Structures are given as C-alpha cells and as structure tokens.
Automatic annotation (TrEMBL):
Name by which UniProt lists this protein: Geranylgeranyl transferase type-2 subunit beta
Role noted for this protein: Catalyzes the transfer of a geranylgeranyl moiety from geranylgeranyl diphosphate to both cysteines of proteins with the C-terminal sequence -XXCC, -XCXC and -CCXX.
Claim: Metal-binding is one of the keywords in the record: yes
Ranges of residues in domain Prenyltransferase alpha-alpha toroid: 5-310
Enzyme Commission code(s) on record: 2.5.1.60
Catalyzed reaction equations: geranylgeranyl diphosphate + L-cysteinyl-[protein] = S-geranylgeranyl-L-cysteinyl-[protein] + diphosphate
Cellular component terms per the entry's GO annotation: Rab-protein geranylgeranyltransferase complex
Superkingdom of this protein's organism: Eukaryota
UniProt source species: Tuber melanosporum (strain Mel28) (Perigord black truffle)
PANTHER family for this protein: GERANYLGERANYL TRANSFERASE TYPE BETA SUBUNIT, GERANYLGERANYL TRANSFERASE TYPE-2 SUBUNIT BETA
Amino acid sequence: MASTLLTSKHVAYIQSLDTKRDRLDYHLTSHLRLSGVYWGLTSLHLLNHPTALPRSETIDFVKSCYHPSSGGLGASPGHDPHLLYTLSGIQILATIDALDEIDGDKVVEYVSKLQNPDGSFSGDEWGEVDSRFVYCALSTLSLLGRLGDAPGVSAEGAVGFVLRCLNADGGFGMAPAAESHAGQIFTCVGALKIAGVFEKSLSEDQVNLLGDWLCERQLPNGGLNGRPEKLEDVCYSWWVLSSMAMIGKLQWIDREKLVEFILSCQDEENGGIADRKGDVADVFHTVFGVAGLSLLGYEGLKEVDPVYCMPKDVTDRIVWNHRKILTT
Ligand code: GRG
C-alpha cells in the first residue's frame, strides 16, 4: 500500500481522461463533464501542476457549454443549463484567470432568476430545490465579484433559507427538516461564510455541536462517513474536513489515520483515487482526496480554500483580498 502521494501518477491519470473518447464510460459521464473538468483542474493545481491541461482548449470547452440566451452553463455542449455546471464553469475560468471570456452580467441574470420567494434557489428551470443550489448561486456571484451587486438576488433571503436547514443535532440538511448530511453541511456553512454572516448566525454552543457531529464521522479505519451508520468514503475527506476547517475545528480529527486512509485509496498503477481501497479510481474522488490532504497540510500540496474548494491563491486574488479592502 502506497505510503506517499503518487503525484506524477495522478497528473498522468487526469491528463488521460480526455483521451478516452472511444470508451463507453466517457460518454456515460457527459452529464457531469464540466464539473469533471473543474475536479481535474483543481486537482492539478493543488498537485502543483497548474499547466498540465491546455488553457485555450479548456476555455473553449467552457464556452461551448455556455447558453448565451439564458446566461447559464450546461455539463456538456447541448446540455441544458444548471446552477451546478454554471458554478463549475466559473470556477474553471477563475482558476485559469479567464473570467473575462464570459459575459458575467448574463451569468448573474441566470443565477438571479433561479431564486425563489423563500430565499432558496432552484437548480434549473425545472425547479428542484436543495441547499446545494444556494451555495452554487452565492459562490458563482462571489467569484464574479457580484455578491452585493446582483439585481433581484436577496442574500438575506438565501441566508434565511440556509439557517432553516439547521437541525437540532448540529448539522444541516438539503432543506428545512431534512436529515443532516456532511455534503449539505459543506454547502450551508460555505454559503454562510461566503455571505459573511457565519460568525453572527451560529452561537458558540451551536458551532461546538456541529464540530462534534462532524468529528464523529471518523471511523476506526481512519476514513470519514457522511452521516451516522454509513460507510467511509474519500469524498467526505472534503465535505467533512472543509466544514471543520471553516469552523476552526480541524484539530478534532485524527490526522494521521485520515492521511493513511486517503493514501490507501490510490490506484498505484494507473493513478487516481477511489472512494475506498480497492475500488475503481475516478476524478471526483481524486480531487476530494487531494483537497482533503491539502487541508491536512500534506507536504508538497498547494493550499486549498475550504470555502470555495479552489486553490487559495486564486480565491485570495479574486475574493478575499478584495473583501479585505472593502472592509478596512
Ligand atoms: C465546489 C466542491 C464544490 C461543490 C459545489 C454540488 C455541491 C456544491 C455540493 C455537493 C454536496 C453534497 C451533497 C455532497 C455529497 C455527495 C455524495 C457522496 C452523496 C452521496 O449520498 P448517499 O446518500 O451516500 O448516496 P451516503 O454516504 O450517505 O451513503
């Protein structure tokens, strides 16, 4: 079992993903493609190989997913626009410093039309509501520098919806009264952080309860699950750990055991990281394994931003420094 991160294998694995167009699984994942590019690109940046994907082809692909009529982006060319892929497209362009390649006003218009009267956001025109979409909306607006300048968007309404997703066990669910889940906790805490209201929204006792719920996700094998009685999965090394980082409780995790668990899920031959040891690797678990290791301070990795799941130097350039200037 590998005891170190197999960086060059993972870089080669991510680079190979777009060359497998003759394979069925390539086409079966076209409904995820733009997020797949975001996961691969983010992994490469964190692995310190920021130029391993061709920049101009990456920009062209993002633009090919853009719908000029609505301002939203779909997962692949010809796919309907959705907030999930709109965020992924903006994250990609932000990471490679190419936000000017897209009409930001139109994207803001797309996002604003998806807000509902109760403050929640629908994922697309068909109306599914989920706390994930509040996160996607606020993150997209903030990366575009338009959080406080998006006509028709009520950040207060969005925050109100997120706070109604808070449960008595300390966690957050996908909607009010829905079961707490680590993925949803990431989106709710992240949305409150992006809106700049986390600290004033939750009491110290509530933050401690949330920290307890999150650190209880670590299982004896070192891996994390996403809710009680469930199996460990590498992706929770992101959803749980980033939430703990955002609330300042990262030290409540057994770091060594989690590092060992993530490293044990690497494909030592072909690169990539799987959900758990022995399973087939994929780019989704690769990014969240690498990003989790980055949060744990694993040597040689670039720092990840726990709020945006993007390289910290990128979000410093785009969001945080700008915000510091505004508040000082
Ligand atoms: C910028 C990283 C980033 C994300 C954008 C889409 C989104 C915002 C966040 C998704 C949050 C989420 C709900 C993650 C969970 C994903 C997941 C592995 C769900 C599996 O759920 P179950 O019920 O699995 O199939 P369990 O582990 O509970 O058995």
